[in-house]
Structures are given as C-alpha cells and as structure tokens.
Amino acid sequence: MTTLPSLYISHGSPMTALHPGLTGARLAELAAVLPRPKAIVMASAHWLSRKPLVGSAAAAETIHDFGGFPAALYQLRYPAPGSPALAERIVQMLDQAKLAPGADPARGLDHGAWVPLRLLYPDADIPVVPVSIQPELGPAHHYALGQALAPLRDEGVLVIGSGSITHNLHDLRAGYSDERQAPYVKPFIDWIEQKLAAGGIDALLDYRRQAPFAERAHPTDEHLLPLFVALGAAGASARAQRIDAGIDMGLLAMDIYRFDGPTTPLTAR
Question: Where is the Extradiol ring-cleavage dioxygenase class III enzyme subunit B domain (predicted)?
C-alpha cells in the first residue's frame, strides 16, 4: 500500500463552506493527486481538551460550532462514517506513547473538520476519526502526538491537522482587507515556510520566541498546534510542500502544507 502524506490545512472562516474560493480550488487539486485514503484522522483546532481524546462514534454528527452566520450554513451536513475500530487503535497508540488518551463516543465533526473535508472529499464516504488538541501542552506535545500516529500513514490513513497558519481574530476590527494586509502576516508565514524547508524542527517548536510577530499571528496556540501533529506524523525525514491558498480579509493566511518523506532529516536550526 502507498504511504500517504500528512496534511496541514488552514480552514479559514466557516463561510469557506459556502464560498470556497482559492482554498476550495487548492483542496480539490490536492484531492485529485492524493491516493484515496481508507480513513482520515482529523486533528482540529476547534476540539480542545486537557488530554488527547479520540472520537469513537460510528457516525459523526456535523457540529455547527459558530453563531451569526447565514442560515444556509447551518443546513450543511457532512455525514461521513466514523470508525470505532480505528479510534480504539489510535487510543492504544497514544497510550503506548504515554500521552494518557481517552475516547469520546459522542464527538462529532466541528467546522475545522467538516468544512475542509467537504472540499477535499465532498461525497463524505471516507471514515473520519477526530482527535482533540491540548492548548495548554504546546508544540512539542503535539509533535509527539503526530509521531504516535505516523504508522497509520503506511496503512492508507490520511492524517490531517486543521487550523490556520495565522489566526488573530482580534484584528478583524483593525480594518485589514484584501487591499490592506496585516503587516505581520507575510513575515510570519515566510518564516514558517523557511524553517519547514530547512528542517528546522527545534526552531519551529520554539516558534513563539523565534518567529517574527508570533504573538500577533497567534495570540493563542490552538490554530497552529495541528501543524505539529501533521509534521510529527510525517516522520523524521519529512519534506514540506507549501500550497498557497491566499490570505483572507488581509489577516487569515490560508496556507496548506503537504508533508512527504524521505528527505534531509529535520535538524536544529
């Protein structure tokens, strides 16, 4: 069986589901060249917990975890099946990695999961197992979580981290737009791209101190933490490919990353 890459997707606003734009085009292009996965593991920035939790529902509910949007958005569903057997195996893998996981048989798919999945696999016919993010535990923990999931890629399982490469919603009131881009966005995403290309894992794990404008780009960690899950799942010789999907509202960079191997091992830079 072909080893699958892992992915990091910037999912953007829930409105991406109604107006996919460049993000939709890029995800459709990506789906067209990927081998079809037999299952998907999705780590979304919108499922937060103190310890890793794995969704074990046989059929995942579509969660509309937002307010104030058009009625049409709340009518959308992504009725993908779950996989209790895969969820149980993931719990075992995370337990072997000493990450103290648990299972949640009621968890559905939040918009960080179902919005990009509708654009990747609109038929909703591939089993999806959600995995939670631990916002208090930082990048190194999520890199280790991804490493624990890495063997699944050899079994036809697609590991996806869904967040946003920049995410400062406080700046929605600052008047940024497609014509007036927030000044921190490009320096931050360029630094991330450069470190991923160079295999600079130590710098990436320490991004809050080393990356330019880190606190402006991410006042809190949760939307970048899924990047480390995807990076960890790719293995120690990951090759990063940036897929540019534009910048929404002048402040939400929509970068997508595909991680393949092997290449030069990740190093401290």
Answer: 34-236
User: Is residue 52 within 8 Å of residue 133, measured between CB atoms?
Assistant: no
- 6-260 adopts what CATH topology? Protocatechuate 4,5-dioxygenase; Chain B (3.40.830)
Distance of alpha carbon 71 from alpha carbon 69, whole angstroms: 6
- The residues near 26 (Cβ < 8 Å, ≥ 6 apart) are 243, 244, 245, 256
**Nearest-angstrom CA–CA distance, 33 and 184:** 32
CA distance 76 to 125: 16
**9: β partners:** 162, 256
Task: Tell me the C-alpha distance between 40 and 61, whole Å.
Answer: 16
- C-alpha triplet 164, 217, 261: angle, nearest 5°: 50
Q: How far apart are CA 173 and CA 176, in angstroms?
A: 8
Q: What is the mean pLDDT of residues 88-110?
A: 98
| Structure confidence at residue 176 (pLDDT) | 87
Per-residue pLDDT band for 262 (boundaries 50, 70, 90) equals: low
Tens of pLDDT, residue by residue over 13-32, are 999 999 999 999 999 999 99
pLDDT tens-digit readout, 128-179: 999 999 999 999 999 999 999 999 999 999 999 999 999 999 898 888 888 8
Strand partners, 157: 39
Separation CA 174–CA 157 (nearest Å): 41
Task: Tell me phi and psi for residue 81, to 5 degrees.
Answer: -70, 155
Residue 268 has pLDDT above 50, yes or no: no
Which helix (H) or strand (E) segment holds residue 162: the answer is: strand 157-163
Q: Is the pTM of this model over 0.85?
A: yes
262 upstream amide cis, omega within 30 of 0: yes
Place of tokens 């195996």: 89
